[in-house]
Specification:
about 45% helix, binds NADP nicotinamide-adenine-dinucleotide phosphate, 6-stranded parallel sheet, alpha/beta, about 15% strand, Rossmann fold, 3-stranded mixed sheet
Length: about 300
């Protein structure tokens, strides 16, 4: 990409898309387009075709999607399947038919790897075992998107790459305690508990370990890969380190400066004990990739989304 390349970010209002836009601007890219779903509904094949016919973007970051936590996935599994499948298929067909010079980067997610994995999870685990029941619709659709990037490349020479980001958090996140993701929910619960001076209850034992990728580090990697990666193989974008839920809580207590009374509801399941991504492949392509620790990203997030002054 050069500073005048025509670059489109689909999903530019969301957590990842807004970060990619911020980073692109910071790095001097000027010719950016980020249509909202109201202007361009990616579920509408005709609108998508028209967009590629008229705009002919050179680079597309496809980070739009129907995204949510366990509750959202369990209550709307068909919507997650349908919408995430149709968006990427409409785009790949439109690129093939009307804008074959476009290079596209598609974000899937590490949560679509099989339920059980040797740790850390390598890219080669994709489609090698039974899926987590709770997000099957999402996982199948995202898996379809990855395969689409590979097959349109194979048959039509479309320059398409796919990445697997891990759990993210950061400015402009969705803080929906019912439908949201684990890390933003934890942050929001702590901020609320401090405000109201209340206790907090969590499921399980607090022992499961999870990664936390600050969204700007993911955006950096996506932009770098758009510029430097040209293969069909998937690339994990993780951190290489993780925290137990208890460790996340200790960091939140310290940074937010609130020692909450924590209750553990051990009648509820812990879920998978460990989910860490192997980032060897990414580090080979981008040796300087150095995702920040949760303390640092948390402070940035609190400043951006909660008016935190420290
Ligand atoms: N958040 C995470 O922790 C995480 C982890 C791994 C992977 N990912 C992946 O990263 C990508 C972005 O996630 P996110 O957390 O940034 O999502 P998000 O904050 O929920 O944003 C979703 C974006 O998708 C757009 N969108 C939804 N339906 C659309 C439609 N029909 N037409 C056009 N645009 C539509 C929305 O646009 P409008 O606002 O204009 O409707 C919004 O910009 C997703 O592919 C997700 O699978 C996220």
């Amino acid at each position: 990409m050069n500073s005048n390349s025509k670059i489109t970010v689909f999903g530019g209002s969301g957590l990842v898309g807004s970060s990619i836009l911020r980073e692109l601007k910071k790095q001097g890219y000027q010719n950016l387009d980020a249509p909202r779903s109201k202007e361009l509904n990616l579920l509408d094949k005709n609108q998508v075709e028209e967009y590629f016919k008229t705009k002919q973007p050179e680079f597309v970051f496809m980070v739009a999607g129907l995204v949510g936590g366990i509750y959202g996935n369990m209550t709307h599994p068909a919507d997650f399947l349908y919408q995430n499948s149709m968006m990427i298929l409409n785009i790949m067909e439109a690129i093939k038919n009307f804008s074959p010079q476009t290079k596209i980067l598609f974000t899937a997610s590490t949560c679509i790897y099989p339920k059980e994995n040797p740790q850390p999870i390598k890219e080669t685990r994709f489609m090698t075992g039974p899926l987590e029941e709770t997000n099957k619709g999402y996982a199948v659709a995202k898996g379809l998107g990855i395969v689409a990037t590979q097959l349109y490349r194979q048959q039509y020479n479309i320059q398409s790459i796919a990445v697997m980001p891990t759990n993210m958090y950061g400015p402009n996140d969705t803080y929906d305690l019912k439908n949201g993701h684990m890390i933003p929910s934890l942050i929001k619960k702590f901020v609320e508990a401090k405000k109201n001076n209340t206790s907090l209850t969590f499921w399980g034992t607090g022992k499961p370990r999870r990664e936390a990728l600050y969204v700007d580090d993911c955006a950096d990697a996506c932009i770098y890969l758009m510029n430097n990666y040209e293969e069909k193989e998937l690339i994990n974008i993780g951190t290489g380190f993780d925290y137990s839920i208890k460790e996340f809580i200790a960091i939140l207590e310290e940074v937010i400066d609130y020692k909450a009374q924590i209750n553990w509801d051990t009648s509820k399941p812990d879920g998978t004990l460990e989910k860490r991504t192997d980032i060897t492949r990414l580090k080979k392509i981008m040796p300087n990739f150095a995702p920040r620790f949760f303390q640092a990203g948390l402070k940035e997030t609190l400043k951006a989304d909660f008016g935190w002054k420290n």
